[in-house]
Write a structure and sequence with these properties.
- This protein has about 300 residues and is of the alpha/beta class.
- The protein is about 40% helix and about 20% strand.
- A hairpin with a 2-residue loop joins strand 6 and strand 7.
Length: about 300
């Protein structure tokens, strides 16, 4: 949505920004409405929607990185076994999408491939928001879960956790981001009590003209009506993946017991080294998950 008229400066008016922002906002909304009416490129959307009814469901928006999905699905299963986990794949590459589908299948995780996204390249945040809105309208809203959450593909639990527990006393929960006097839940870790939001015109995209990134489109329909002082938040801390560099050059992020690779941030020269550091931190947890899965498999075999 464009800013309110009182927020535009005289310079904005001279450059006709109230008009151009209104037109662009309408265009974005139209593209979003058209996109969310498209069927999944792969998977049974209706079946997935039916499977989440009255459950707590975590939805990952995947993007072209099968390794991350393999790690995440294993660790969510290990540390948060009570939740239903769904992968909605926003990958543009067919080969990567097939590997992600197989990784989801290996862990018994529901998989849907979103329709081809109209936003590409430098519009990654807008692409992400469009995929979130498609999921809200085609999976979450018709599925009517008890609660739902969206997580990025590069954030993983490293200890037993219930990210939905705070919803017992509040309607939303997650990592809060601030822009001036406004705030929103980061789209990479956000939880919602379905009954509290099911009738609201939610928009998980950007509110770019207000400076709000993916998820910020919910400022007007949801967050602006809440008092942040009443909202328990997930604490978070950024840190450099190795000594001797600035955090901004190679950040990782703790969201309490969840570890976030922060893959789109930092100096690209460090990308491979940062991935290796992320993998080392996850290694003992993946080993524990594998051992636990083997015990469960052996127990099932022994009862046959």
């Amino acid at each position: 949505m464009p800013k309110s008229l009182r927020e535009f400066t005289a310079h904005d008016w001279r450059r006709l920004r109230p008009l151009t922002q209104a037109v662009k906002s309408q265009r974005y909304a139209l593209l979003d409405r058209i996109y969310r009416r498209r069927p999944a490129a792969s998977g049974d959307t209706a079946a997935v929607a039916r499977s989440i009814r009255d459950r707590n469901v975590l939805v990952t928006i995947a993007f072209s990185d099968p390794t991350l999905i393999s790690w995440q699905t294993r660790l969510v299963r290990h540390y948060i076994p009570a939740v239903l986990h769904v992968i909605v794949d926003n990958s543009s590459d067919d080969a990567a999408a097939e590997q992600i589908r197989r990784a989801a299948d290996d862990e018994g995780v529901a998989y849907l491939r979103a329709p081809p996204n109209p936003w590409r390249g430098r519009s990654a945040s807008r692409s992400h928001g469009t995929a979130l809105n498609w999921t809200w309208h085609n999976v979450i809203r018709p599925g009517a879960p008890s609660a739902f959450g969206f997580i990025d593909h590069d954030i993983v639990p490293t200890a037993a956790d219930d990210p939905f527990a705070p919803l017992a006393i509040q309607d939303i929960y997650g990592v809060v981001r601030y822009v001036g006097s406004r705030w929103f839940l980061w789209a990479g870790f956000c939880m919602f009590r379905f009954a509290a939001v099911k009738d609201k015109p939610l928009d998980f995209g950007q509110d770019w003209f207000l400076g709000l990134d993916t998820g910020g489109g919910n400022w007007k329909p949801l967050y602006s009506h809440l008092d942040l002082r009443d909202v328990q938040q997930r604490t978070t801390e950024f840190f450099p993946f190795k000594p001797g560099i600035a955090t901004a050059d190679g950040p990782l992020q703790w969201c309490e017991s969840w570890l976030h690779e922060v893959g789109l941030m930092g100096d690209s020269r460090f990308s491979a080294e940062k991935r290796a550091a992320f993998a080392r931190l996850l290694a003992p947890h993946l080993e524990a998950a594998s051992a636990s899965a083997m015990i469960v498999a052996d127990a099932r075999t022994g009862t046959r």
